[in-house]
Amino acid sequence: MPTPRSDSGSPATATATARVVENAIHDVVAEAKGPMTVPQIAKATRKRLGAFKCKLADDQIVGVLSRATDIGCALAFRRLVNGQVKRKAEAVAAAARFGDRRRAVLIEGNIGAGKTTLCARIASVWPDAVHVYREIVNPDFLELMYAAGAENAFAFQM
Amino acid sequence: MLTQRQHAAALDRATRADPPAIRLHDRSLVGDVVFAVVNRELGNISTAQFLVYRSIVLGDVLRADAAAIASPTLRERCERDPAALFNEIARCPGYLDDPDLTVWYLDDAPENCKRRVETARKIAAEDGVPLSYYRAVASAYERALAAVERAFPTGKVCRYRFPDFDPAVAALSTS
Question: Fewer CB atoms near the end CB (10 Å): N or C, chain B?
Answer without folding.
Answer: C
